[in-house]
Recover the amino acids of this structure.
């Protein structure tokens, strides 16, 4: 059975229930009535009293055996409206039970009887709070261990719950900024920004075990690598990055070495950077540019002093454009005489794959008192003599130097000479705005008793130096090989002994080089002096062409070998041995010499053998003459002379005891005589030569001087003797 709507009890004007007994009721069937279908129903009661909140809803059963068939809701209603609904079982009220147990009186009397007498008053007291405070208590943030509004330290775990994973959990902002500089989202992503714009670098989890960085990570140290940008370098071509780069170099020093990374960019440097032991500089793609009035890199402080090879060592420089930015009067800042890079008193210095350019007055790379210096596959471009009087026209791009006052940047000035130096695979020439160096590789300082030992200059390309391409000054045990040298102002290659010092130079090998278009002096020259004779120099298998001067010149050398060279077009002599005893000039080819094809002067025991000389503009095919002393015991054998301007072979003043044999001499319409002798040439033997086909009479083929030469194998002197004409 369902009742539509509520049961309403109306009150009279005095607020009393109209029923005299105060009852309001409704008749409902018992829930266990046998005629009910189904049985076991419960009735749901909901109280809706006007002006009363917290209406109660509860369930009850109406058994058929309820006394008087009446249930009072006050007996079955739950006391707490928050308790769940339940099925109430009707029973006697507490008042009824009291009556059954002997109470007499109304229910009102019974309720009044439940109230006991008032007890004695207790002592007055107060409420005690934390920190023994009473009364109205105000607790500070510190007393509650709460963080201050302006900061504080949080201990324990802090959690942040937000609606979405991309909501900001933490962030930081600087006063005056419009954007936070750092934030963390609830899902754990990190982001950074400049403060004046939104964040632009992000770090987040992109997959299982994977972090994704949307940007570039510049770590101060990563596996021993220190990125200069992590130390504040900008590389923007505007900022002065000296301090930041030096901080990275100092950090490597303090760590006992490591790699300093200079990423791509342009880094302005206002003073020398200092690199220390066991440090590698990697600068591929970077330009390091001087904006002050000094060079760029060195391995010493001005206050330091070292002896021997004990300075900062084991240094490598890989890559980079190192621009010394020499002033040309319009562009550039550097006017001082300064090295682009300088290394002093050290071991194992390597500069590789680097470009050193626009050097002012001094050197691009100086190895001073270095044991084990290497310049490998570098480019040396652009030089400016800012001395004001052109007094620095000789400056070398790579200088190999000695620790003496006026030459070394710091002490000790102990005469330590560089040794074990290798310059290989490099290019030397002009830059986009400055011309070439005075010399590509060389030295210009010496000391008595010291030489630069074990110097190797291999496979380089040298263009247009102001003076020599390679200047081996006081070098010993040196190899200069397979270089291509063109357009030099003086010699392509000059190895020279110093004047005024006593040194021992030996074992100079110059081989496989190609020298063209050299200016005054010889294409290749080995130059000793009467005090310092160079021992066992070899000039072999070189090519010299279009030379202003001699092609190969050995002077004051002991037993030099000039072997297998190819000479084409000189304004002077092709091959020249002067004051060089026991010189061997063997197996060379000389075409179009401006003077003699081969000149042997002042030499004892020289051999000129199996050479080809074709065409001389003046003088002789092979000339044996006087130098500081007369030539003697010279053997001229097996040579082929074609088209010499004068005689094919000439024994000149005071040539003594020379042997001329087995040579083939062809006039080619030019040569006037086969072999001629000066009147002072004595003791000559001229036999077995082929001078046929030239139409010469015996007196023309061989023109003897006052001292009659021996012309046949039995010692006869009748021309032509055992020679073919």
């Amino acid at each position: 059975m369902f009742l539509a709507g509520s049961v309403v009890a109306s009150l009279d004007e005095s607020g009393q229930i109209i029923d005299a007994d105060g009852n309001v009721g409704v008749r409902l069937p018992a829930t266990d009535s046998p005629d009910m279908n189904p049985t076991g129903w419960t009735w749901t009661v909901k109280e809706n009293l006007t002006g009363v909140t917290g209406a109660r809803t509860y369930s009850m059963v109406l058994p058929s055996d309820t006394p008087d068939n009446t249930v009072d809701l006050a007996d079955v209603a739950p006391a707490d409206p928050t308790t769940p609904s339940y099925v109430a079982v009707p029973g006697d009220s507490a008042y009824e039970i009291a009556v059954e147990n002997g109470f007499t009186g109304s229910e009102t009397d019974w309720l009044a009887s439940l109230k006991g007498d008032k007890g004695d008053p207790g002592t007055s007291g107060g409420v005690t709070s934390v920190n023994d405070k009473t009364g109205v208590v105000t607790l500070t943030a510190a007393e509650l261990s709460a963080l201050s509004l302006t900061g504080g330290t949080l201990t324990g775990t802090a959690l942040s719950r937000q609606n979405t994973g991309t909501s900001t959990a933490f962030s930081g902002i600087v006063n005056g900024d419009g954007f936070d500089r750092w934030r963390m989202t609830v899902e754990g992503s990190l982001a950074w920004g400049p403060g004046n714009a939104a964040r632009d670098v992000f770090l987040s989890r992109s997959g299982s075990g994977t972090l994704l960085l949307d940007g570039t990570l510049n770590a101060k140290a990563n596996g021993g690598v220190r990125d200069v940008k992590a130390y504040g370098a900008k590389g923007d071509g505007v900022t002065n990055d000296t301090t930041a780069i030096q901080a990275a170099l100092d950090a490597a020093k303090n760590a006992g070495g490591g790699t300093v990374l200079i990423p791509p960019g342009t880094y302005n440097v206002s003073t020398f950077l200092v690199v220390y032991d066991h440090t590698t500089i990697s600068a591929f793609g970077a330009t390091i540019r001087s904006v002050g009035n000094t060079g760029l890199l060195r391995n010493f402080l001005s206050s330091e002093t070292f002896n021997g090879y004990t300075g900062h060592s084991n240094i490598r420089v890989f890559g980079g454009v190192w621009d010394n930015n020499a002033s040309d009067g319009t562009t550039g800042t550097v006017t001082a005489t300064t090295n682009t890079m300088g290394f002093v008193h050290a071991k194992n210095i390597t500069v590789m794959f680097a470009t050193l350019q626009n050097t002012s007055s001094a050197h691009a790379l100086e190895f001073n008192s270095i044991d084990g210096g290497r310049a490998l596959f570098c480019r040396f471009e652009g030089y400016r003599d800012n001395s004001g009087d052109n007094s620095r026209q000789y400056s070398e791009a790579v200088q190999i130097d000695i620790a003496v006052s006026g030459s070394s940047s710091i002490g000790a000035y102990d005469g330590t000479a560089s040794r074990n130096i290798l310059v290989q695979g490099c290019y030397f020439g002009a830059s986009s705005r400055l011309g070439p160096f005075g010399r590509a590789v060389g030295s210009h300082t010496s000391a008595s008793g010291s030489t630069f030992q074990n110097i190797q200059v291999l496979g380089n390309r040298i263009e247009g130096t102001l003076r020599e391409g390679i200047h081996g000054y006081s070098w010993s045990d040196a190899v200069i090989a397979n270089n291509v040298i063109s357009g030099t102002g003086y010699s392509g290659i000059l190895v020279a002994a110093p004047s005024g010092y006593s040194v021992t130079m030996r074992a100079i090998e110059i081989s496989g080089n190609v020298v063209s278009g050299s200016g005054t002096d010889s294409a290749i020259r080995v130059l000793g002096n009467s005090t310092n004779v160079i021992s066992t120099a070899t000039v072999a298998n070189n090519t010299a062409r279009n030379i202003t001067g001699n092609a190969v010149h050995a002077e004051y050398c002991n037993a030099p070998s000039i072997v297998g060279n190819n000479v084409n077009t000189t304004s002077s002599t092709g091959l020249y041995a002067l004051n060089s005893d026991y010189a061997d000039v063997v197996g060379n080819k000389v075409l179009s010499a401006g003077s003699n094809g081969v000149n042997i002067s002042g030499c004892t025991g020289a051999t000129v053998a199996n050479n080809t000389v074709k065409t001389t503009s003046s003088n002789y095919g092979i000339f044996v003459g006087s130098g500081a002393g007369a030539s003697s015991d010279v053997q001229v054998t097996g040579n082929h002379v074609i088209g010499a301007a004068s005689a094919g072979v000439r024994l000149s003043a005071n040539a003594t005891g020379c042997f001329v044999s087995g040579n083939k001499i062809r006039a080619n319409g030019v040569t006037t005589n086969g072999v001629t002798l000066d009147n002072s040439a004595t003791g000559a033997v001229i036999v077995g030569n082929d001078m046929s086909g030239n139409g010469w009479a015996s007196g023309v083929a061989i023109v003897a001087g006052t001292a009659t030469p021996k012309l046949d194998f039995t010692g006869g002197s009748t021309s032509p003797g055992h020679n073919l004409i």
Q: What stands out?
A: The longest strand covers residues 341-352.
